[in-house]
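Researcher: I need the complex structure. Ligand is adenosine-5'-triphosphate. Inputs:
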Amino acid sequence: MTTSNTKAKDFIREIIDEDLKKDKYNGRVQTRFPPEPNGYLHIGHAKSICLNFGIANECQGLCNLRFDDTNPIKEEEEYVQSIKDDIQWLGFDWDNRLFFASDYFDQIYDYAIQLVKEGMAYVDDLQADEISNYRGTLIQPGKNSPYRERSIKENLELLKRMKAGEFADGEKVLRAKIDMTHPNLNMRDPIMYRILHTSHHRTKNEWYIYPMYDWAHGLEDSIEGITHSICTLEFENHRPLYDWFLEKLGVYQPQQIEFARLNITYTVMSKRMLLEIINKGIVSGWDDPRLPTLRGMRRRGYPPQAIRNFCRRIGVSKVNSMVDIEILEHCIRDELNKTAPRFMGVLNPLKVVITNYPIGKVEELEGINNPENPSAGTRKIPFSRILYIEKEDFMEEPPKKFYRLAPGREVRLRYAFFITCQKAIMKNNEVIELRCTIDPETHGGYAPDGRKVKSTIHWVSAPQALNAEIRLYNHLFTVPNPTGQNNVDLKEFINPQSLEILKKCKVEPMVQNLKPFSRFQFERKGYFCIDPDTTENNLIINQTIGLKDTWAKIKKK
Ligand code: ATP
Ligand code: MG
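Model: Output:
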């Protein structure tokens, strides 16, 4: 017997530890991640993946990947493939345990026949609106359908004809015969099968009836020998039904455990809403870096390890709540700080001419690739007479506490020289070029006489610089809880500044060697990632996240 071996135990891991101690399920732990292939995965799913695969790993158990493909209307093969890719990208593996609910359709049908034969299920002719009227409310009991007392023989006959495609969509349903006055509405004769003359992405045109989630899900778990069926809180009220079906059928019974779904500020987490945002053209697709989808996060440069750390850090709870997006951003920075190689890139270039540096001379300076990781080594950075610096690193008339470049002031060019601004060239009231000198004695960025400067700025040598398009991202919504308001058009809260495209950026030549999705830091500007749309002539870079801007903080004070 092994117990899960982690520092902070959440309530699910505690339950599982107890079960292992009691040798429930013969010391086995088997979980599953059961996505419906009707959209791409988002970070909410990542929480569930980390939990299910994580627990299995910790307990030397197993975790299945099972597509819950019981609704052919919204499901597609494209989603199956993307979900598999995303789980692997996140760092988990289902080995040979890839399953589909549709593989069990025959078996699930046989179980339905069993319940009909035992008088525990019946075919109902009521229409959808009637069924809903008959169901009653939280304070009013429901009413029995006039078709509830059909004979077993007639029910069997009708169910077979439903399966054979003899009835139109909605004409009949199969219902469990439980109790129309049950205080839990889910127990008031829930629907097991509905008629759908729709082709399924895997079973094609074999079926005219499809099982409902509540009917199918427990059976899927039971067939696979799942021990702990972990799901989100909205299924708590469905647990009695989950148990009822399995008990009445007399089959192996896993236990369902519910936890609170993940919500994050300034974004939305439902596939339906994400699809709406995509279809309205507000973002470019499922992999738009502004979305909380795993595809979007990958394109934006979020490391999978950081997402896993985040999921572990926020823990598991029984109460719904909203997680501050800054916690996620902290995890991203924390991971990238350790792992991202550093480069220099100028987002808004200002030309600088070093008047005392020879025309045509190029020298190579040495830059540190990652101060957090000495084994990352160093690289060569070309230096020449014409450079670019960041526009915001120069001010004609610097206010107090602005320590960067200004007329007559000396600062350090990172890894290079001390530089002094001699003159700013203006055009239409705007600085368009600086004339500066360097002190050749300060090669490498330190003065032999020990004099200090108050700031270090980044730069790129103009002749060798690469042109790049850099995309900056901001929250997709202007309010922390866009779905908190009822009946409001989501569009109202879309942040018009969620994407800013800078087309004239200049970056150091080593960036040329980076492959799509490579993550790195531009010193002083944040973390970035090569966009997969990059071509030989068009370098596109996404900003993953900024560094904390200390200047912005000072300004606010
Ligand atoms: P959505 O509401 O976004 O459409 P869903 O629950 O319908 O999500 P499924 O494909 O059915 O999506 O989800 C697969 C698994 O992921 C389920 O076990 C579900 O409980 C879990 N899951 C989905 N969203 C979240 C979330 N926000 N937080 C935690 N787990 C989630
Ligand atoms: Mg679902």
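Model: Summary of the prediction. Residues 36 surround magnesium ion (ligand 2) (CB under 6 Å).
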